[in-house]
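Troubleshooting entry. The earlier prediction with 2P0 gave an output that would not parse, so I re-checked the input for stray whitespace and re-submitted. Clean input:
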Amino acid sequence: MYEGKARAYTNIALIKYWGKKDEELILPMNNSLSLTLDGFYTETSVIFAEEFSQDEFFLDGIKQNAAATQKVSRFLSLVRQQADCSLYAKVTSKNFVPTAAGLASSASGLAALAGACNEALQMNLSEKDLSRLARRGSGSACRSIFGGFVEWEKGISDATSFAQPIASDHWEDELAMIFILINDQQKDISSRDGMKRTVATSSFYPGWLDSVDEDLQKIKEAIQKKDFQGLGEIAEGNALKMHGTTLAAVPPFTYWSPQSLTAMNMVRSIRNDGLPCYFTMDAGPNVKVLCERKNAAAIVEQLQTVFDSGQLVTAYAGPGIQTFKGADK
Ligand code: 2P0
């Protein structure tokens, strides 16, 4: 019996990963850049044992159905191949999120699973190779191996596509991200399906690819200069461009809900009133507000005039993956 456990934190992209050039290897069309956060994380235990006759996946104490188990099982098969192991596994995951408001993250989930497998099977992967492995589970998971600001180099092959931390002199410790949790009844389009449809059909997608490298270059300069206004303006603009591409997909779609727009307008208005803050959004209606830590409480106070305090969660920069011996049973 081989067992291991890992904890990985979620990350939010400031330059978005949007589109794959290789679906099987999960090679992205563009580099992306993220901030790992301390607020939301996944803890995953894995046990490989002869007594198991199939892979099993438990999430927050509930045995998962065939579809959810299949994604995990596909990843375990990659691990088995790489580690030369033929045993089935039991995976037990717990998401630590403040509410069930659509914050479960495949980034923290697949990064934690990769870390737990690395520990259990004594694969002794370097951080770079662990990032490559996590990428095969879910693209954004490769960034959750590291803390702080992280860049995913798109690469041209399995060997060359991985994330690495960006030197920042700990500037991220002076920042915060306020999550505005927006529950809506819309049926979700997964990010996997959404980016695939966009790449295949959106006439705006070439525009995305034309400008994303420049955004990346500028945001890295802003990080080096500790230029918060630059960081925020580029991140907000990049998120808007990503969401713009979905409007020209066939059929078109959007992740925005009326409350998302309310939140974005509020962020602009708080900023115009003198408190610097910028928004970003991912493949769902929640809005995340990037600000300086010193201003977070005042910005939350403003947001509370429109949103319930239960909808507002403040997170700060978080660490890279942590692994543990043994497993939760
Ligand atoms: C990101 N997103 O950079 C972008 C922005 C969503 C919007 O990475 O298909 O769950 O497993 O590689 O990593 C979400 O996509 O997609 C994502 P797969 P993933 O954070």
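This one parsed fine. Helices lie at 66-83, 106-120, 127-137, 191-201, 205-225, 228-247, 258-272, 296-303.
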